[in-house]
Amino acid sequence: MSKRAVLVVDLQNEYWPTGNLPLQGIEAAAANAARVMDHARAKGDLVVNIRHEFPGGAMFVPGTDGAEINKAVEPQGNEPVITKHYPNSFRETELKDILDSKGIDEVVVVGAMSHMCVDATTRAANDLGYKTTTVHDACATRDVDFNGTVSSAANVHTAIMGALAFLYGDVISTDEFLRN
Predict the structure, then answer these.
(1) 117 classed as catalytic
(2) From the candidates 3, 65, 71, 84, which is the catalytic residue?
(3) What would the pLDDT profile of 116-174 be if each residue is shown by its tens digit?
(4) Which of 47, 80, 149, 169 has its CA 20 to 30 A from that of 34?
């Protein structure tokens, strides 16, 4: 059995153009994530679907369409679906227990947003000792404003992927992943 898991982070309707927080390139990222998921399933890898909820918030409200996983990357069969309330998918969830119970030692991260939940989850996985890979073109983000300076989604994504590649694991393309 494979010791690798794909973590599909927050590919929820809220990030699509009809949602409350649309991301640049979300459709292309989701299409690549679906390719990663299909390949992983064919190889016998575990696919773990992660969704964010903000009870009482304005976005990712439990029970709304925005909080649902997008149809492009729907879970299949009995794949685990984890609901989280923090950017780090390991924080106060059963994710680590699920991975450890399956003997997982390598995680592959795809999803949204590059600069928040993908970043937090990848760093946490690395800190917990998992071999970590992020599939950069299966992730999406948005422009970020800080103190009146706007960084484009492309620059935000590049900065985060560069930081992850520096010390937090491999950062590869979907095509590179599919060759494994």
Answers:
(1) yes
(2) 84
(3) 999 999 999 999 999 999 999 999 999 999 999 999 999 999 999 999 999 999 999 99
(4) 169
Q: Which of 10, 45, 119, 137 is catalytic?
A: 10
| Domain encompassing residue 122 | 8-24+40-178
| Number of structural domains found in the chain | 1
CATH of the domain at 70: 3.40.50.850
Spatial separation of the C-alpha atoms in residues 53 and 149, rounded to whole Å: 29
Confirm whether 169 is domain-assigned: yes
Query: Is the distance from CB of 108 to CB of 130 less than 8 angstroms?
Result: no
30 in any annotated domain: no
Which member of 38, 43, 96, 117 is catalytic?
117
Catalytic (active site) residue 71: no
pLDDT value at position 180?
82
Q: Is 119 designated active site?
A: no
Confidence of residue 1 (pLDDT cuts 50, 70, 90): low
Instruction: Record the pTM.
Output: 0.97
